[in-house]
Design brief:
alpha/beta, Rossmann fold, 5-stranded parallel sheet, 5 strands, globular
Length: 130
């Protein structure tokens, strides 16, 4: 099955932490192995955390191991630069948005405020799934 969604770090944290509504957890459970990818920046953000208890990293490591990781290639770099110039967003958000746009993916994120500036980017807030 083709990748359809890009999972932002904040949505991954909420998913692993069980803080999403039940419907969103069920939806992500049904697609995470087949339709969800992450950007290399999401991989860095998720695995770069250093909790007091190293066992707290295991769910993140397992999730990252199951997902397709999309690289920071030249097309994503170019698109990230353009997004930063046009919308004045933070570098990690620009990379995530550019990755979604370049690969034609919908972004799963609760960070609606930063991404709503980008008209071509389709976002899904898992906290507001009906």
């Amino acid at each position: 099955m083709a990748m359809t969604f890009l999972l932002d770090t904040n949505a991954a944290i909420d998913y692993i932490g069980g803080t999403l509504p039940g419907k969103a957890i069920a939806w992500l459970d049904s697609i995470v192995d087949t339709e969800v990818a992450i950007s290399v920046i999401n991989q860095i953000e998720m695995l770069g955390f250093n909790p007091d208890n190293p066992a707290d990293m295991l769910p993140f490591e397992e999730l990252v191991d199951t997902l397709v990781i999309l690289p920071l290639d030249e097309e994503v770099v170019t698109r990230s630069i353009a997004l930063r110039k046009r919308h004045k967003i933070k570098l990690p958000d620009a990379i995530v948005a550019a990755t979604a746009l370049v690969h034609g993916l919908s972004l799963i994120s609760r960070n609606e405020s930063d991404f709503k500036k980008i008209p071509d980017l389709k976002t899904i807030n898992p906290h507001t799934l009906l």
